[in-house]
Amino acid sequence: MNNLCADIGYKSLNKFQEQLCGDNVEYVEDDENNTSTFVLADGLGSGVKACILSTLTSKILSTMMEAGLDITDCVSTIAATLPVCKERGVAYSTFTIFRLINNSVVELIQYDNPKVIMLRGGKNFDYPATMSVIGGKEVYTTRIPVQESDVFFLMSDGCVHAGVGMKMNLGWQRENIIEFLESLYDIGFTAKTLCTILLDECNKLYDGMPGDDTTVCAIRIRQREQVNLIIGPPAQREDCSKMMNLFFSKEGKHIICGGTTSTIAAKFLGKPLVPNLDFSDPEIPPTATIQGVDLVTEGVITINKVLTYAQDYLKSNESYTQWSYKKDGASKIARMLFEDATDINFYVGRAINPAHQNPSLPINFSIKMNLVNQLADCLKKMGKRIKVSYF
């Protein structure tokens, strides 16, 4: 098995004045068979009915595939389940299935959604597709080996319809979307940020009033990368060496959060702790440096800001315009955890900081632990592999 994995992100725009999205996305992982399955379904029309149809389609397909059923059986079931609209002569829901097998082969199954765009080496890759009729419906299937840095874009037809009758007579054509995406390839954005940028462009073409539900899913093939973060000293002082030994024995980047923790780490490494006096953001405490450590920051205030960024990342992802370039400790941690890391190890000390016992401060032990737990949950939802160890 190789060391590749998938960085996955998706985001939707609701049709103007609609509270529910008529597109739905389901993502399931099968650790036993080492497969990841991504289903994007687009319900006919918009509103409640479209939402129900797309949810039904994506749920059925992802559940059956997770259970190990054959692709043909899955598609036959959904094709037989969903009728065709008598008035329009089209299916009540279209779908695209992306399946990554052993992090080495991708299967694409496409029915009536815009054709998946694949970038390889920064350019559009014209992959082969085989058409077959399943349940009376034309389904296109593809099976190709993946390479590091391949990027796949799944989308509903709201993307290609962007700007119709407004800024573009025929909408945002596939060739134009490909050209736009190729310009972003070498910048190194995460899958979620690529979705955000693409949807922002669609929204501009719609003049902020989308004429259709619009969904984009991005899957970026990349190498696994480990990041280790330690925060807080252990409950028992004699466990300091054990905690530091385990932390620094791990491969990958190392982040130290907290004044006491960084002092212990500097002593353990036999290196000086050097504060950085530049305040790039007055709301975030300054960072420090220790030779051999990738990043040293303050603890609770900084992690609280990272958690705010993580929660936004899972929703609108609007704050990426801040953490993607700022130089404060929270932004640097966000870039390392959201963009660089695929596997994250947390080392959390249970010691109670006397400085946090001041009743005038809104910080206590339980709040610190809660911040770490919430951040770990957010990172799991981003598709990261998380391990939390307490001392």
- By CATH reckoning, the class of the largest domain would read Alpha Beta
The CATH topology assignment of the largest domain is Phosphatase 2c, domain 1
Low-pLDDT stretches are none
Name the average pLDDT.
Answer: 89
What is the annotated CATH architecture of the largest domain? 4-Layer Sandwich
How many domains? 2
> What pattern of helices and strands is seen along the backbone?
EEEHHEEEEEEEHHEEHEHEEEHHHEHE
Looking at the structure, what is the overall shape? elongated
Structure notes:
- There is one protein chain.
- The chain is of the alpha+beta class and 391 residues long.
- The protein has 10 helices and 18 strands.
- 45% of the residues are buried.
Q: How would you concisely characterize the structure shown here?
A:
This protein has 391 residues and is of the alpha+beta class. The protein has 10 helices and 18 strands.
Secondary structure elements and pairings:
Layout: E1 4-13, E2 23-30, E3 35-43, H1 47-66, H2 71-81, E4 93-101, E5 105-111, E6 117-120, E7 123-124, E8 130-134, E9 137-145, E10 151-155, H3 174-182, H4 191-205, E11 214-223, E12 226-231, H5 240-249, E13 253-257, H6 259-269, E14 274-275, E15 288-289, E16 295-297, H7 300-313, H8 320-323, H9 329-340, E17 343-348, H10 365-381, E18 385-390
Parallel strand pairs: 12-13, 12-17, 13-16, 17-18
Antiparallel strand pairs: 1-11, 2-3, 3-4, 4-5, 5-9, 6-7, 6-10, 8-9, 10-11, 14-15
